[in-house]
Design goal:
Blueprint: E1 9-10, E2 15-16, E3 20-22, H1 38-49, E4 54-61, H2 81-92, E5 97-103, E6 119-121, E7 134-136, H3 139-158, E8 163-168, H4 173-178, H5 193-196, H6 198-211, E9 216-224, H7 240-252, E10 257-262, H8 278-285, H9 295-303, H10 305-319, H11 328-337, E11 342-345, H12 351-359, E12 365-368, H13 370-374, H14 378-383, H15 398-402, H16 420-428
Parallel strand pairs: 3-4, 3-12, 4-5, 5-8, 6-7, 8-9, 9-10, 10-11, 11-12
Antiparallel strand pairs: 1-2
Helix pairs in contact: 1-2, 3-6, 7-11, 8-9
Bound molecules: flavin mononucleotide and iron/sulfur cluster.
């Protein structure tokens, strides 16, 4: 009997071999200036080898002022194209597609770096949690940014990649426009939903004008924002009722798929859903101290035993108890409203659960980040008949908090039977093979 997990997924302009995509997952692997690195290629190839149908790239800034951390490869200039072409080829060698996530952080970032002081946003209000300062975009800056997204899509196409995804989720620039809690503009980009969606729809139109209608274009969107999850007194932000019309407008504008996520900031208790490993968090939060006006206050708060316990319990309460398929109800609501495929992210790692979600018509495919970091061969395990990998992801979120300072990888030592050396070796394996002319010592 055929298994829906291994049936091809047909988009308007693209077909992928199965229903499991690697979700976007960043990591500071590249060079400071935004040029790509061999480690990024090694990282992506590992998932292509593991059998996913497509890889959704890391956060790829379309402008330097849109970056959230140094050492993420960018797509802001034509001379970036050869690196992405090479990466795409290496992924294609394993019958896997590669979709680039076109991104702009707006006011939300982790470590500012030296190139610009303040982010651009829909608002001039700093983010309420870390206090990242920003300037409200002028009409000219909006136009420039729309054009930057279109140019980035052209570069992705010239690099031979299989499509692009607009990162309109997780609190970054597009969310800052879409959100009823964040966007406080009084011009045609603020106020009612149609106005708040204008910037995103202008970008879709500009991309279609630049690359034509036959290049895959999808949008990742936080359909429920829960903007008040961590900072008391904040507004709730968009709900699924606000997001469904936006998804319909995106479909009408020529978008080929919707990727459902959640949260008006990142990280958020519901994204990536799971625990907050407070000790690891405090150990790396110092690297963000100079980035926001509230980071020192937060650091002291997180360092205190009582206050950190308080923060952790609030996080756990907001995260809830069921992690797998945390966004499925929203995906289902979007699926009922649009005719294009709907992808869903959030906690997936059990074959029978994913199969049921697709069979029930809640989504067309799932995207997986952490469970693939823990088990890059997860799809092969599913194919061999296992319902889960032998050592599943524990949703501890240690990979998440470490990523600001340390290489991306699985940091749950319990998954390595308590053997820290084995864990570190595994994390550092992303640097093999090393760039040309460099020798590694950890292999
Ligand atoms: C370390 C880390 C980095 C991430 N980077 C990105 C990113 O660059 N872009 C994005 O859209 N989502 C990013 N995400 C979110 C994931 O793509 C995914 O939607 C989320 O983790 C939920 O899926 P999961 O439960 O399978 O991990 C990241 C998640 C983690 C843990
Ligand atoms: S550190 Fe490992 S086990 Fe923990 S959430 Fe990340 S991938 Fe999963």
């Amino acid at each position: 009997m055929s298994d829906i997990l291994f049936e091809p997924l047909v988009f308007r302009n693209l077909t992928i071999k199965n229903r499991i995509l690697r979700s976007n997952i960043s990591g500071r692997f590249d060079n400071y200036d935004g040029s790509g690195n061999q480690a990024r290629i090694n990282w992506e190839v590992r998932f292509a080898q593991g059998g996913v149908g497509a890889i959704l790239s890391s956060f790829v800034p379309v402008l330097i002022r849109g970056r959230i951390l140094p050492n993420y490869a960018t797509i802001d200039r034509d001379d970036r194209i050869p690196f992405w072409r090479e990466l795409g080829k290496r992924v294609h060698d394993h019958d896997c597609k590669f979709i680039m996530q076109l991104s702009h952080g707006g006011r939300q970032r982790d470590i500012g770096g030296i190139e610009f002081e303040k982010g651009l946003s829909s608002t001039a209000k700093p983010d309420p949690l870390h206090g990242f300062e920003c300037e409200a975009m002028t009409a000219a800056q909006i136009k420039e940014t729309v054009n930057a997204f279109a140019e980035a899509a052209r570069r992705a196409r010239e690099a031979g990649l299989d499509g692009v995804e607009l990162h309109a989720s997780n609190g970054y620039l597009f969310t800052q426009f879409l959100s009823s809690a964040i966007n406080d503009r009084t011009d045609e980009y603020g106020g009612p939903l149609e106005n708040r969606a204008r910037f995103l729809l202008e970008v879709v139109a500009a991309i279609r004008a630049k690359v034509g209608s036959d290049f895959h274009l999808q949008v990742k969107i936080s359909t429920t924002e829960m903007n008040n999850a961590m900072v008391p007194g904040e507004k709730r932000g968009n709900t699924i009722q606000d997001s469904v019309p936006i998804c319909k407008w995106l479909e009408e504008a020529g978008v080929d798929a919707i990727h459902v996520s959640s949260g008006s900031f990142f990280p958020h208790p519901r994204n990536p859903v799971g625990d907050l490993p407070i000790d690891d968090f405090v150990r790396v939060y110092d690297s963000m101290l100079s980035s926001g006006t509230k980071t020192l206050r937060n650091f002291l708060f997180f360092k205190g035993k009582l206050t950190s316990n308080l923060f952790q319990s609030r996080w756990r309460k907001e995260a809830g108890k069921v992690f797998e398929g945390v966004n499925l109800a929203d995906a289902h609501a979007v699926k009922r409203a649009v005719g294009i495929p709907v992808l869903c992210t959030g906690g997936f790692q059990t074959a029978s659960f994913i199969r049921q979600a697709i069979d029930d018509g809640k989504c067309d495919a799932v995207t997986i980040a952490r469970s693939l970091v823990a088990n890059p061969d997860l799809v092969k395990h599913f194919k061999a008949g296992l319902d889960q990998a032998p050592k599943p992801c524990t949703y501890c979120n240690k990979c998440l908090v470490n990523v600001v300072e340390n290489p991306l990888g699985c940091y749950d030592v319990t998954r390595f039977d308590g053997d820290r050396d084995r864990m570190v070796k595994e994390i550092l394996s992303v640097f093999d093979p090393p760039p040309f002319g460099v020798k590694t010592t950890h292999a």
